[in-house]
Design goal:
single chain, 338 residues, alpha+beta, five-stranded antiparallel beta sheet, three-stranded antiparallel beta sheet, 12 helices, 45% helix, elongated
Length: 338
């Protein structure tokens, strides 16, 4: 266990290195921070921190910089989440409240996160499997063709065309719409199959084939594999930190193009808290020089998706964690009210 004083020294090194981009020496630490000890004591503390792998010397005659292990300890023990100011909170709320639909909410969230943190922003669309049905609309396009519109509690809208085996009248369509919504509105997607399995039996024999076809299309929509969608923005921000990446930012950019990689980075949506993965904690080798700060968002206190930022390990962790958490809270409120 590190002593309280050495934890203070580590905190000061992280703060100075993040702020100045320069390796930190003992003389600078004692001048900038009220550590209450001599430069010689600080040097001894820095030597101990280096021996234990919390800081490193990038080249001889230079100061020290934090390692992944040092940043980890800083985040776990030393970094509080920096709260947003009143004007910042109002700006977030006003910017997001102007959204007209879910796509607009996600697009605005990506833009806002990238601007607030000056990192790469990633926002996952609300997952269908963690959503509930708000409404199912059925629209007649032709005697034997119906449009099925599924609206979720998160504002997500899915549309499917249904080619019916026989003509289906307006009265029958209205009856199916009413019966369907009475069973599934407000229910979790995972509950829907059982709720509708006997629905065809409520209709005349000649309409049961069409009812079954409509229900099959609905159930396919609920379980589609390609439901996991992401939006990414602010990639150009990485060029501001090119010197933070050992050789080139190319591996980072290539990793960011892979949706599966990003989904794994964000983690499971069911974990609503702020998660920070630092450097080599990211399994993808192209992202070993980055940190990922993510958090779940959703309505009703339950996370239905994740959002977060990707940037160099030399990042303002308290500020980034605060911004990510604040944006997620406002997105959840907007989804709940939409």
């Amino acid at each position: 266990m590190l002593s309280e004083r050495r934890l203070q020294v580590l905190r000061a090194i992280v703060q100075d290195y993040v702020g100045t981009e320069e390796p930190v020496g003992s003389k600078a630490l004692t001048e900038r921070h009220n550590l209450g000890v001599s430069p010689a004591t600080v040097r001894n503390d820095m030597a101990a921190l280096e021996d234990e792998g919390y800081i490193a010397q990038p080249h001889t005659s230079a100061g020290r910089i934090p390692t992944d292990k040092g940043y980890r300890l800083f985040v776990d023990k030393l970094a509080g989440v920096k709260p947003m100011t009143g004007p910042e909170r109002r700006a977030i709320q006003n910017f997001l409240e102007g959204a007209v639909d879910l796509d607009d909410v996600v697009a605005r969230t990506v833009r806002l996160l990238a601007q607030l943190t000056r990192q790469v922003a990633v926002v996952q669309y609300p997952s269908l499997t963690r959503s509930t049905v708000r409404h199912v609309e059925l629209l007649s396009l032709a005697p034997a063709r119906v449009m099925l519109v599924l609206i979720t509690d998160t504002g997500r809208v899915e549309q499917r065309m249904v080619d019916c085996p026989a003509p289906f009248g307006e009265a029958s369509l209205a009856d199916l719409r009413a019966r369907l919504n009475s069973r599934v509105a407000g229910r979790r997607f995972t509950d829907v199959p059982k709720l509708v399995e006997d629905l065809p039996e409520a209709f005349e024999m000649e309409d049961r084939g069409t009812v079954s076809t409509v229900l099959s299309t609905l159930l396919e929509t609920l379980v589609e594999e390609n439901e996991e969608r992401l939006m990414i923005g602010g990639t150009a921000n990485l060029t501001r930190f090119s010197h933070d990446f050992p050789l080139t930012i190319r591996p980072v950019l290539e990793a960011l193009e892979e949706q599966v990689v990003l989904l794994k980075l964000l983690g499971e949506a069911k974990d609503p808290g702020v998660t920070v993965r630092i450097g080599h904690e990211n399994a993808h080798v192209g992202l070993n020089s980055t940190s990922v700060v993510s958090v779940g968002y959703g309505s009703g206190g339950e996370a239905v998706a994740k959002l977060g930022v990707v940037g160099p390990t030399r990042m303002d962790y308290p500020g980034t964690m605060g911004a990510v958490r604040a944006v997620a809270r406002y997105v959840g409120q907007i989804l709940a009210e939409s």
